[in-house]
Amino acid sequence: MQDSKFVVYSFIACILFLGVNGESPYRFFTLKVTHGDIYPLGVKQKGILINGQFPGPTIDAVTNDNLIIHVYNYLNVPFLISWNGVQQRRNSWQDGVLGTNCPIRPGKNFTYVLQVKDQIGTFFYFPSLFFHKAAGGYGSIRIWSRPKIPVPFPTPAGDFTVLAGDWYKRNHYVLRRYLESGHSLPFPDGLVINGRGWNGYTFTVDPGRTYRFRVSNVGISTSINFRIQSHKLKLIEVEGSHTLQNTYHSFDIHLGQSYSFLVTADQAPQDYYVVASSRFAPRVLTTTAILHYSNSRKGVSGPIPWAPTFQIAPSLMQARSIRWNLTASGPRPNPQGSYHYGMITPSRTIMLANSAPYINGKQRYAVNGVSYVPPDTPLKLADYFKIPGVFNLGSIPTRPPSGNNAYLQTSVMAADFREYVEIVFQNWENTVQSWHIDGYSFFVVGMDGGQWTPDSRRSYNLIDAVSRCTTQVYPRSWTAIYMALDNVGMWNIRSENWARQYLGQQFYLRVYSPANSWRDEYPIPKHALLCGRARGRRTRPL
């Protein structure tokens, strides 16, 4: 009898420890983080491996699954993993960025407990601390629809992951020293597809069958164009949204973005180039993988297919062509279009302008004139424990200042739970910007050149704009989004250009509910790591 009581109490303790939805299935993962030799561009480098792999293993889940992810840090430096696009509903405690989590110390471990609540689609995980992202440590996340939820395309014959992006031969700590000394990063040395350089990876297909290609730009500085020689790309999904199934010969994918395409093996049996090339860069970088027909006896041949390089107009037109599939089910059985985002009037407009100031003689990057400085204590912990002096709400303005002055600050913007906001990203620089918002997806209602004004709203798409978590802003242009603030927490808004993010082009949005209820936000995890001025405090009783 005593043993039975122990089992019951242990089970209850486990559920309280996890603090997630007990009705949905649990999936358990172990990620062991180590250093190891890698050769992405033919040069030996010290990379970051997950379970001995680069890229790391794919995390597969089904809508609403609870994910228990044990991360063991075998590096000699602190480490964090974040989950690009996973919304962490009511649970910014698990977001894995420095504003919400203490780093995992060398030789220690931490268990992320999260739920992929009401999500489907293609995402990825990555190391968020220091400049580790330049050393690898990333992998794919695939969230599948529940079996009874209809999907707007036939089941593909296979599902391929393409993690593509720019790469440097210099080690990540050398690149970090460049930035900390006040210099810009050099130009990347090349591009990689699934951690390999030219013709280093092969996708094998059977003739006549259709396959899903999930493509993410996991680079740190460069937009890319993706294409497959002699084959068409049918777009089906963008960061968790089913789209109208337009067909493209090539497709621009900006930093941090993820797309799914259907590709039919309908050509003569041979090998074909799978191509990624840089976009809007001072010079064009190109790499290839191989699409191999299973009955092929002929290798790749002919020129690499052409794609735009510097031209902005075709990329803007392509971006505007991405539309939400209003009749398709998303993670729930009801059609995506049953949410009429365009019929809701935003309560306010937030305008965010990026800049590249010099502060104290060093290159920095800023949002609305504020260059973010990480505090000594994660913002989420400081907020929970009410630790003074870590951050101030309103430390970043909601509109860019009139002058050119910029300053250093731990910038946190205040917002209320259930607000519905319009955010305008204004880019007056000559480079493409890519913005990501943790904890949310948003509707990209408009983008165009020049200065945004209230009259710009006349061009908004208020019917079938795609919902996503990462958007581009073209040079000297603007992008506008609508977003429902329905997720309480401390959420990172950042540039996906990792040098800009590292040197200050980011801030946190504190979405606040006065209810202090588990209905709005999960409590602090009992096993939360405590550091900085939160060290020595207690999380909560079991």
UniProtKB/TrEMBL annotation:
Matching entries from InterPro entries are given as: Cu-oxidase-like_N (IPR011707), Cu-oxidase_2nd (IPR001117), Cu-oxidase_C (IPR011706), Cu-oxidase_fam (IPR045087), Cupredoxin (IPR008972), CuRO_3_AO-like (IPR034275)
Xref: Pfam families: Cu-oxidase, Cu-oxidase_2, Cu-oxidase_3
Q: What keywords sit in the KW lines?
A: Glycoprotein, Signal
Keyword Iron-sulfur on this protein?
Answer: no
Tell me which positions the record assigns to the signal sequence: 1-22
The GO terms this record gives for MF are: copper ion binding; oxidoreductase activity
> Locate the Plastocyanin-like domain: which residues?
33-146, 159-296, 376-514
Q: Tell me the protein family, please.
A: Belongs to the multicopper oxidase family.
- Record-given protein name: Plastocyanin-like domain-containing protein
Source organism of this protein record? Gossypium mustelinum
Taxonomy, top ranks, is: Eukaryota, Viridiplantae, Streptophyta, Embryophyta, Tracheophyta
